[in-house]
Write a structure and sequence with these properties.
By secondary structure, the protein is of the alpha/beta class. The protein contains five helices and six strands, in the order αβαβαβββαβα.
Length: 186
């Protein structure tokens, strides 16, 4: 390999290093949406942190199964057109693709418009998510700004601030109040 080839490989590795890997819908075997969804113009002014409130996951197979189960529940029982969140984060530290950030979520009516919905898979009322999951969420938020999904001065909120819920759970809610961009109000 020539020195130019080595330089290209090295620069490519540096460029990819800062990007959060996303498990795509195809990789977790998502169903296609079964109806129309309202669009939103990005970048968005808010990121809303939630939890799914069910069981957690720590490995790829279990997290993908949780994604399929949640999508199925939300589409059949809750009558949503697709999974309600834009991104979900497993205990394995991986980020899972939900609906597009340019599509209005279905997690915080009537405050879905302008909100990027990020949910941690599991119940975080009494215990915090894994450090790998917390780190992935922080990196995802930074990436969302660089990819123009969130405005640079976005507000970070807990799900309970925009909807009548206990989400994201007391333990997680306490943690996110220490993160950059935390806001007491919408």
């Amino acid at each position: 390999m020539t020195w130019i080839g080595l330089l290209i490989v090295g620069l490519t590795a540096i460029a990819v290093q800062g990007e959060v890997p996303i498990v795509t819908r195809a990789e977790w075997n998502a169903k296609p949406p079964n109806g129309a969804m309202d669009s939103m113009e990005t970048p968005l002014p808010r990121a809303v942190i939630a939890h799914t409130a069910g069981g957690g996951c720590a490995d790829d197979v279990t997290c993908a199964q949780h994604m399929r189960n949640l999508q199925n529940f939300q589409m059949t029982r809750q009558k949503f057109s697709d999974i309600s969140y834009h991104y979900l984060i497993g205990g394995n530290g991986k980020v899972y693709e939900g609906r597009s950030p340019s599509q209005k979520g279905a997690f915080a009516a009537p405050n879905n418009d302008g909100s990027l919905g990020i949910a941690f898979i599991g119940n975080f009322q009494e215990r915090a998510p894994s450090q790998a999951a917390l780190d992935a969420a922080k990196e995802l938020l930074q990436q969302a700004v660089t990819q123009a999904q969130l405005v640079e001065g976005y507000k970070l909120l807990g799900h309970r601030q925009v909807s009548a819920t206990m989400s994201p759970g007391e333990a997680l809610y306490t943690l996110i109040q220490q993160w950059p961009h935390w806001s007491e109000e919408m």
